[in-house]
Every structure is written in structure tokens, then in C-alpha cells.
Amino acid sequence: MAQFVNAKEDLVKEAIDGLLACSGGALARLDGYPHIKVVYRADWARDRVALISGGGSGHEPAHAGFVGPGMLTAAVCGEVFASPSVEAVLAGILAVTGEAGCLLIVKNYTGDRLNFGLAAERARALGRKVEMVVVDDDIALPDLPQPRGVAGTLFVHKIAGALADAGKPLDAVAAAARRVIANVATIGTSLDTCTVPGSPKENRIPEGKAELGLGIHGEPGVEQVAFSDAAQAMDIVLDKLRAHAEPGPCVALLNNLGSTTPLEMAVLSHGLATSGIAGQVIGPSLMMTSLDMHGFSVSVLPVNQEEQRALAVPVPMAAWPGVHDIVDVPVTALPDGLTPIEPIPSSNARTRDTIAQVADVLIAAEGALNELDAKSGDGDTGSTLATAARALKDRLDAMPLADLTQLFPALGNELSQTMGGSSGVILAIYFNAAGDACAGGAPVHKALVEGLKRVSDVGGASVGDRTMIDALAPALDALGQGIDAAAAAARAGADSTANIHRAKAGRAAYVPSENLKGHNDPGAEAVALVFEGLAEAMKG
């Protein structure tokens, strides 16, 4: 798998230097490359308790992304998924620890515990006040004697960081950290494993499965479960966490494990927000990742008033999303003039059957049209048309089926609301123009031609530009000879687009010509399928 990296051995160093170069001077590092990679606050005066965390890289923005006022004083970075050395941790301690002492916040992995623990012993021998806490918030393996430290560590960073920034002594900061560790719980799930730079990807999660409780280093989870949708995935995770969300104030942290898209994370947020498990949320955001893992984790922490206040203190680091109340979705009425005017329903069995047949053709063609659109666009033409077709079938009882002068505008208004992208706008223009022509006395055939003319005038496309017009125009020209002739003309027009290698309108106009060769325009193909479907239905 191709990745935006240079030499593997320089990956972490270059990533750290990129972070520092773009920090505006807020961050600095110790001059210890390649073995000592310590990021620390450039403004640190060693006048309060220092907070140090770290571990292997690959979890960005953790940990260096949380170095700043109100959170970490320093982050000690190892290579990807590898604990930093004792010397690196000791260098970080000595660099930032003053008379107030320092707190080491360590995730519960053997390498981290050993290296941070030995560094703490050596620092104490040198006269530094050092406390260490170990985060073990992962509940995926309930019988494990040493649970892993995962995204719940961020609660410790923030709450302990706020207290340290406020000048609290080391014993109070450490006690607060231990209280958080005792109460926080985390579990995650993923649809895929992560890709370690320079190593082959492990494809152990099959299609249709999600892995529950996998580790942030790609370790196998507790089980693979059937995956159906976001709601089910969130429900499974929250069911595991509910016993840890005690009555009273509770904060949830929704963490993107790496490559889950913002759109997916927003859908998952909806499931979390409506679950009632917490009254406040941190995220959704990339906070503690596992490289490019396509998954998410949820952490829950029952909080007292001091912890709530500490979480609410703002910090300047962009990686920290802040804590927010979960609220009922605010909804306001549409502005005057935008509320759709409902048509007066009327019945016509033949018209109803015709519209239903067209809708069924588009629904059946969803996959094929998506596949075709992927050659020249974003692969959604089939879904766009099928979604609108399903909605239209559901609305047929409300349509003025007996009056075409009302039906055409009603179709245009309906499609403008239910069909996304440019297709909905084009068809709204088409059917509204056809309705105007009908109201002026034009027969149906002429009204449909007038609709096409209006679309061409507004959209600027014509025959030969590789759009739906390449199929629709010849079909309407031939419609006077019957539906079979129209279907044949539409098919010939659609197939001709495979030989048009330079589109002049629509999204395909931005696609290189070699991607278009030999593939029909999906809009034109949809028109041909509709006319062919109608012709076949009328034979029956």
C-alpha cells in the first residue's frame, strides 16, 4: 500500500519536525535524534508540576499533539508502535522537571511500563520528585490481569493537566489521575486493521465483519462480530460500557482510530448522542489513533464536579476538541416561501403504473449505474436515482395523477427535494418546464420536448456533450413513432457516449479522456434503461 512517507527510518523524526515547524514556536524538542525524541513546551518555566506521557508513535495526535498549556508538558516518542528508551524518558524528565516534580502518565504496555518505570527510578536517584500512574482503561478483555491503556488516557492528560496548570501539588495531581484511571473504561471496534509503514498489511477481518476490542497497535480483538451498520456497531460498543457509566454525570469520548471519515464519525456521534449513556461528549475526533485503522473507540468516565471543571478548561492545542453538552437537535421552521406546496391528490391508474415502472427500473439499476459512474465520476449516480425513485413511489398517493399540468411541476418539486447533486435540479427544471408547456395547451410529447429545451438552455449541454441529453433528445424525437422506436433511439444515443472521449458538460468534463473510453455516460444509460423498461412493460 502506497503511503506518503519517505525513508522508514526517518518517518518519526520527520513527523515530529513537521509538527514543530508548524506549531508557531509553541513546541520544541531536545537535540537527541535519532534515539531521543522528546517534544516539550517551549514556554515551560518548570514552576509547576510537569506532566510527561508518550510511547510508540503511530497514535497521532497522541501524544505530542497534546503538549501545551493545560495538558502535557512533554511527550517522549518512540518509533512506530515501539516504546521509547529509558534514556529518552529520562531526558524528558530532566528537561522539564522543577522543584514541583513531575507525573509520568503511562499506558499499560510492558515496554512502556519498564522504560518509564526505570527512568523514574533513575530520576529519583538524581533528586527529582517523580510519580508514575499506569492507565489500564481497556475493557475488551475483562479477565485480563493487565488491561491495556488506550484512549481513556486522554481523560488523565486533561484532568491532571488542568490541576497541574492551576498549581496543585504533585500528590494532588497524582491522586486525581489515579481516580480517573480507576473509573474510566474504553472499548473500540474496527472494520479493518492498520498498515504499519514498511510492513505488509494483515487482512484478518473479512468483509461483513467487525472486530471488537482490538488494540491500538493492531492486536487482534476479543471477537469478530457480524457488521450491518453504524447503529449496530455503536450499540455493541455501548452495551459493553454501560456497566461502567454510573448514575450521575458522565462524559463520553468518541475517538477516531485513524481512517474513519468525518461523515462516518458524525453518524456514529448520532448513535452515541441518542443512547443516553452520557450527558457530555469529547469529539468525535482523531485523538489516539492506530495509524490508518478504520474504526472508532468510545471511552466513558463518570465525573465529579472537580473533574467536570478540569475537562471544561479550554486549551489552545488544536488536537483537543473540547467537551460539549449533548443536546436535543435544535430545529427551526423553514423560512417563509420555502415550505413545499402540497399538490391536490388525484387518481389515474395508468399514470401511476407508468411512474412506478420507471421507478422500479431505476431501483433495479442502482448497482450497475454506480459501477458505470465510478468510471467517470464519484460512483453515486445509481444511488442518487434509486433513492429518489423509492421516495417517489412512497409519494404516489399524494400526487395529482389525473392532471398533467399539475403532475409535472409536482414531480419536479419532489425530485428537487429527494434527488441529490445536479440530477435533481436538472429534472426539476425539466418537469416544471414541461408543466408550463402543458398548461399552455401543448400535448405531452411537445411538453416533454419543451422541458428538454429548457434544460439545455439553463445547463448549457447539448447532444454530443456526453450527458443524459445524448439519450433523451433522440428518444423524444422518435417518441412520435412509438415507445419501441423511442427506446431504440435512447439506447443508440446512450451507447454513442462510449465513443465520446471528451465530455463538455457535467462532472465527466473534469475526468481525463482515457477514463471515459468505452464506457457509457451513466445519465444517458439511465435514460435508455427507463425507455427500454417502459417499452417492455407496454408489451405485457
Account of the protein in words:
With 540 residues, the protein is an alpha/beta fold. Helices cover 43% and strands 14% of the residues. The chain has 18 helices and 13 strands. The chain has helices at residues 11-21, 86-96, 110-125, 153-165, 170-183, 230-241, 262-273, 305-312, 349-364, 366-376, 381-394, 404-418, 421-439, 444-459, 469-478, 483-496, 513-516, 522-539; strands at residues 27-29, 38-41, 50-57, 74-80, 102-107, 130-135, 185-190, 209-212, 223-226, 250-256, 280-286, 295-302, 323-325. β10 (250-256), α7 (262-273) and β11 (280-286) form a beta-alpha-beta unit. α13 crosses α14. The protein is elongated and about 100 Å long.
What's the gist of this structure?
By secondary structure, the protein is of the alpha/beta class. The protein contains 18 helices and 13 strands.
Cα Rg:
31 Å
The computed structural class is alpha/beta
The low-confidence parts are none
Distance between the termini: 52 Å
Please summarize the sheet with the most strands.
7 strands, mixed
Q: What strand order characterises the main sheet?
A: 9-8-7-12-10-11-13
Strand count: 13
**Overall mean confidence score, pLDDT:** 92
How many helix segments? 18
Q: What is the helix fraction of residues, given as a range? A: 40-55%
Any idea what the shape is?
A: elongated
Strand content: 5-15%
